[in-house]
Amino acid sequence: LHDALPISEFRDNMGLALRGGTMCLGIGIPFMLSPDNHILPEFWNDLRRQGLINTFAVVMFIFTLYKSVGETVCFAWQGMIGTFVCSAVIWFMFQIFPGGVTPEAPPQHFWCGVAIGLAFTIGMLGLNVSLLAQIFGLANFAYFYMSFMNGHAAGFSSGWEINKIGRASCR
Questions:
Q1: 103-110 long-range CB contacts below 8 Å, 24 or more apart?
Q2: pLDDT in tens, 113-138
Q3: pTM above 0.70, yes or no
Q4: Please, is 5 exposed, middle or buried when counting C-beta atoms within 10 Å of its C-beta (0-12, 13-18, 19+)?
Q5: What SS3 state is found at 105?
Q6: Structural element, H or E, at residue 72
Q7: Cα separation of 53 and 144, whole Å?
Q8: Angle of helix 56-64 relative to helix 69-96, nearest 10 degrees?
């Protein structure tokens, strides 16, 4: 009985490693090919050329995977919640301050951006939300926040409109 426990635990961990490795290979193959290949569907190559999908998808998969289907689905929901909250905050930032922080923008765009960025970061870390929601929310927020602070508004909805094509959306 004493020797059966390590074998059972090893079997569970090996199953997780094999599932994770297989999926990482499947998700990662498109990134091993050039964006101009003729193997993958053209829409996938277009998404890569536009920068709408990248290797961050593999990293997020690794954070989500766990031993049972229930835990994996729970982690996926937590990651989606973190991503949704981050996307909502960035969307509101671009609606209230169209274009983000640019040299032509008034100084309050910068200072409000700093305040909202600090508030979001401290709020996500301080609230009693799951660790995975924090990881997904803060990782995505860092990318979108830097786009806002550098004035890279192309692809983001501004002025209370919803743009269906751009960095923060997919076709």
A1: 103/151, 105/151, 110/149
A2: 999 999 999 999 999 999 999 999 99
A3: yes
A4: exposed
A5: coil
A6: helix 69-96
A7: 14
A8: 130
